[in-house]
Design brief:
The protein is of the alpha+beta class. The chain is built from 4 helices and 17 strands. The chain has helices at residues 29-36, 74-87, 157-165, 204-218; strands at 2-10, 13-19, 46-51, 58-64, 69-70, 93-98, 101-111, 114-121, 128-130, 133-137, 141-146, 176-183, 186-193, 198-200, 225-229, 232-241, 244-263.
């Protein structure tokens, strides 16, 4: 079967996106894994299906590159919002549903294939502090560790991240792992993502978790926080009420790279 797909990235976090409103793509794990494979497939950190939804403008179904389903992806959420506008099925403001609930998105700027998108996210549980580390859920579970300089080449994000991701206290589900340091007027974040099982150029829910944790560590009560990643810059806004974060928004780029077709 011939498959038409679109390739997007949000701050270097790249995705295959498919218009699945006719439900032709069933999302078999092996097919998703092959499409996301870097050297023998299209190549992506994840695959996203845009589907019909009776309660919202559309439904976002997200797969990690290993074929597993995930509840949410912040960079992917911005990209699918840009894709929905590209398809002409929504205006610049929209509401969509994902596995973790309802989200709103607004296209702040659009210029050909480049979009700037503001996306609402959920901070579902109160953060748990472990010494100077934090554990919190921003659509998916995240571990945040503060270091003096995460841009240093000696930091082995894959090895360190994997040891935490697979540690007994986070099994069997595992956890995404973020390494954070002060940077310019905000923070720099590097993330080991479960499901990708490696470092990605950025992670939307990860930078959100990191910004909230950093604000709590600093004693701030609200954002925005500027976040720099290896793939680009993002902004996280929120309000803190004790240990609870509300009005959480992630703003950043969503870029349409190309449209293609392949066979499955």
């Amino acid at each position: 079967m011939k498959l038409i797909f679109f390739k997007f990235h949000g701050a270097g976090n790249d995705f295959i996106i498919i218009d699945n409103r006719t439900d032709f793509f069933s999302g078999e794990e092996e097919v998703v894994r092959k499409l996301c494979a870097r050297h023998v497939g299209v190549g992506a950190d994840g695959l996203i299906l845009l589907e019909r939804d009776s309660e919202a403008d559309f439904y976002m179904r997200f797969y990690n590159s290993d074929g597993s389903l995930a509840t949410m992806c912040g960079n992917g959420g911005r990209c699918i919002a840009a894709f929905a506008l590209y398809l002409g099925i929504v205006g610049k403001a929209m509401h969509f549903r994902a596995a973790d609930g309802m989200h709103s998105a607004e296209i702040l700027q659009s210029n050909n294939s480049h979009y700037t998108v503001r996306l609402s996210l959920h901070a579902l549980h109160e953060p748990r502090k472990e010494k100077r580390d934090y554990v919190l859920h921003t659509g998916v579970p995240h571990f945040v560790r503060f270091l003096s300089n995460v841009t240093h080449e000696d930091l082995d994000v894959v090895a360190e991240g994997r040891s935490i991701r697979y540690s007994d206290r986070f099994m069997p589900e595992g956890v995404n792992v973020n390494f954070v340091s002060d940077y310019e007027e905000g923070i720099y974040v590097r993330t080991y993502e479960r499901g990708v099982e490696g470092e990605t150029l950025s992670c939307g829910t990860g930078v959100t978790a990191s910004a909230i944790s950093w604000a709590m560590e600093k004693g701030w009560v609200q954002g925005p926080v500027k976040v720099t990643t290896r793939g680009g810059s993002l902004e996280v806004d929120f309000r803190l009420h004790g240990d609870k974060a509300t009005d959480v928004y992630l703003t950043g780029p969503a870029i349409l790279v190309f449209k293609g077709e392949t066979w499955i």
